[in-house]
Amino acid sequence: MQHFPQPLDRGRAGVPPLGQSPACAALRHRALMLIGPRGPDRMAGPLGTRALDRLLVPAAQVEGVDLHLADPALAGRARWAVAFALVLPPLGNLSNVFYRVHPRRNDRFLAARAPLKALFPEVDFAAFAFTGHALGSLAAVCPERFTLVRRGLVEAWVPRMRLLLEILPPRGVLIDLPAPDWLRRPVTAREGLRQIALDPEDRAEGLARLRAALLQGAL
């Protein structure tokens, strides 16, 4: 199994190009694992447990699609892999027509845009630091108006996921973690992909499902 460290995104959202800042450091995609030719066969025992633990750490569960797409080195590294495992990015952890998120910590709510302020004029958006808190509060304030927010999230999430999948190897496993009904991710279908639902609290069952999905068919 191969783990590829990733550099910071270059020149996007205020981040200087790699090498132009002494503070630049490697960015690791915790929610994405690129797998070499021997990887699927080794997804058992302690090694498989460590791999799944890395995919399911809290920091991985909040990584958004924006973080993965912002890595210019990902496409080159993905060409050396035969498969991948990806925790499906949360629907709300991406910049969109309604609000902006942090370019690397995509669960951080940075600012509401004008359409969201107009849709929820009674809400003080300065009180929100995380997307989950913001979206849960908006859904509670007015479920009917929140359906428009969800529609905007889907319209941003789906094409970006397609872009990401074009970069990754043709075979892979998408890990679908529990989410509220009002933030459930759209179904992602593509030949060569398998989508599995996992409970982060049941690692033994999760590892069995992940390994079975990786080993189905020739890799």
Report on the structure:
The chain is an alpha/beta fold and 219 residues long. The protein has 8 helices and 6 strands. The strands form 2 sheets. The protein has a 4-stranded mixed sheet with strand order 1-2-5-6, covered by helices on one side. A two-stranded antiparallel ribbon has the order 3-4. α1 crosses α8 and α6 runs antiparallel to α7. The N terminus is likely disordered.
Structural class: alpha/beta
Helix proportion:
25-40%
**Terminal Cα span:** 13 Å
Number of strands: 6
Beta-strand share of residues: 5-15%
What value does the average pLDDT take?
83
- Principal-axes geometry comes out as elongated
H/E element sequence: EHHHHEEEHHHEEH
Task: Work out the radius of gyration.
Answer: 18 Å
Are there runs of 5+ residues with pLDDT below 50, and where?
1-26
The side-by-side strand order for the widest beta sheet comes to: 1-2-5-6
The biggest beta sheet, please? 4 strands, mixed
Number of helices: 8
How would you summarize what this structure contains?
The chain is an alpha/beta fold and 219 residues long.
Describe how the helices and strands are arranged.
Elements: E1 32-35, H1 45-55, H2 58-61, H3 65-69, H4 74-78, E2 83-87, E3 99-101, E4 109-112, H5 114-119, H6 131-141, H7 143-167, E5 172-176, E6 193-197, H8 203-215
Parallel strand pairs: 2-5, 5-6
Antiparallel strand pairs: 1-2, 3-4
Helix pairs in contact: 1-8, 6-7
Q: What structural keywords apply?
A:
disordered N terminus, four-stranded mixed sheet, alpha/beta, 8 helices, two-stranded antiparallel sheet, 37% helix, 219 residues
